[in-house]
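Side project, low priority. Logging it here so it doesn't get lost.
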Amino acid sequence: MKKKFDGSLNHLFSTVLRLFLVIFGTFLLAFVLVFPLWKWASVSERSYSIFVTIIIVLAFAFVLIQNFKKQGALVFFRKFSKIALIFLALLFAIFLVLNEKKFIALCLIPITIILYSLISRLFAKVGKK
């Protein structure tokens, strides 16, 4: 009985210790990483924006290259073209709505659906065995 109680107590203390370590690690990470980045962003907005944009583009390129290597060229191109079509159509629709061309933005929806189905049918046999 005493051994069972000691095991439960050890488990409780180790869980509480892990919780405090996670909280401490979060505060440490915030102090070491986030505070200097915030200070840099508030002092030099332009250089910080350029740096963050470069990091995001490099991460996106890395993910694209990894997917390209893993899936093959045609499967990758099919998936990428579908995602790019939806993303660009969404951006273009937002641009049109903000410029008071709502009817053209509304016409963009069926055009996007038609292009998406065309891409799907064009690459229907790609990637299937």
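Brief comment: The longest helix spans residues 2-43.
Revisit when time allows.
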